[in-house]
Amino acid sequence: MALVVLLLLVAVVALASLAWGARDVAPGQVWRALVDPVAGDNDHLVVRDLRVPRTLIGLAAGAALGAAGALMQGVTRNPIADPGLLGINAGASLAVVAAIAGLGVASTAAYLPFAFGGAAVAALVVYGAASLGWEGVTPVKLALVGAAFTATATSVITVVLLTDRRTLDEYRFWQVGSLANRPLDVLTTVLPFVLVGLALALAAGRVLNALALGDDVARGLGQDVTRGRLLVVTAVVLLCGSAVSLVGPIAFVGLVVPHVARAVVGPDYRWIVVLSTVLGPVVLLLADVVGRLVARPGEVEAGLVVAVIGAPVLVALVRRSQAVAA
Predict the structure, then answer these.
(1) Do 284 and 56 touch, CB atoms closer than 8 A?
(2) pTM for the complete prediction?
(3) Where exactly are the transmembrane stretches of this chain (predicted)?
(4) Which letter does DSSP use for residue 317 in this model?
C-alpha cells in the first residue's frame, strides 16, 4: 500500500515539475505538449524543451540518491551515513575541479566523465584502504577512511579554488547541486549506470538484512560478508557516480529518505531500498519545484532547498526515534 501511495506521489510531483515554474502551464496544456505538441506554442516549448529533461533527470538522480543512501546506512550500520561517507562526492568534486583548472572544461555535459570517474576512483581507494589488515573491511574502517579521504580531497579543492578565480566561478555553480540547464543527452549517457546500480541495490536487500545482525551472525547464516559488502559498494559507486554526474553533489536526499522509508516499512532492507528508490525522486523534484516558486522569476537551486527541508525533517526523525526508545 505504501509503495502504491508513493508511486502516485511521484506522478503528482512530476506533473508539478512540468507545470510550475517561472511560467505556469495548465495541466491540460502539459498533456497536450506531451502527446500532441504544437510548433511555435510557447507553453509547449517550455514543457518539452526545458521541463521534460529536468523532470526526467530529477527522477533518475533522486532514485539513485535514495537507493544509495539506504545501501550506505545498511552496509556501514550507521544511521547518519549518506553517499558522501565513502568520499564519493569529494572524489567527484576533486575530479571536476581538476578538469576545470587543468583542461579548461566549462560545461555541464563535459563535467560528466570526470565526475563519474572521480567518484569511482574515490570509492576504489577508500574500499581498498579499508580492506587492509587481517580483519578486512569493517563498517568502522569504511567510515574512518572515507572521512579521511573526504577531508584530504576537500583541502586540495580549497587550495585550487583559492588560487584560481576562474575555476571557482565555474565550479560553484556545479557544486551547489541543481537540475537546471542539464541537457537530456547527459541522462541518456548515465541512465544505463543508474539502472545497473538500482538492479544491484534491489538484489542487495537480503545481504543488508544479514549484515545488520553483525558480520559473525551473517557468516553463520551462510552469507559471504566480503562479497556482499563489495556488491553493495559497487552499487553505491554506480548510483552516486551517476547522481553526482547529473545534478552535482546534492546532500540530505540519501540521508533523510532511508529514515522515512524505515519509519514506514520497518527494518527490512528489502523494502527500505525499494521505498527509498521511489521516495528519492519525490524529495528531489519537490525541492526543485519549491526552488522555482519561491524566487520567481529566478530560482533557488535544488541542493539548497533540499538542505533547508532535509535538516528539520532529520531532526524530527531523530527526536521521534529517541522518544520511541524512551
Answers:
(1) no
(2) 0.90
(3) 55-72, 84-105, 111-130, 142-162, 186-209, 230-257, 269-290, 302-319
(4) H
Most distant CA atoms of the chain, gap in Å? 67
What distance in Å separates the CA atoms of residue 100 and residue 149, rounded to the nearest whole number? 21
CATH class in words for 2-325: mainly alpha
Q: Map out the domains of the chain as residue ranges.
A: 2-325
Angle at 211 between CA 217 and CA 1, to 5 degrees: 120
Read off the pLDDT band of 323 (50, 70, 90): low
State the distance between the two ends of the chain, measured CA to CA, in whole angstroms: 29
DSSP letters of 37-82?
A: --TT-HHHHIIIIIIHHHHHHHHHHHHHHHHHHHHHHHHHT-TT--
- Residue-wise pLDDT tens digits, 261-275: 998 999 999 999 999
> Would you say 249 and 93 are in contact if contact means Cβ atoms under 8 Å apart?
yes
And the C-alpha cell for 59? 527522477
From 232, 247, 291, select the one nearest 96 (Cα to Cα): 247
What confidence tens digit (pLDDT) does each residue in 184-240 have?
A: 888 998 999 999 999 999 999 999 999 888 878 888 878 888 888 889 988 998 998
> CA-CA distance, 140 to 126, in Å (whole number)?
12
- Compute the distance between CA of residue 174 and CA of residue 179 in angstroms, rounded to an integer: 10
- Whether the CB-CB separation of 200 and 235 falls below 8 Å is answered with yes
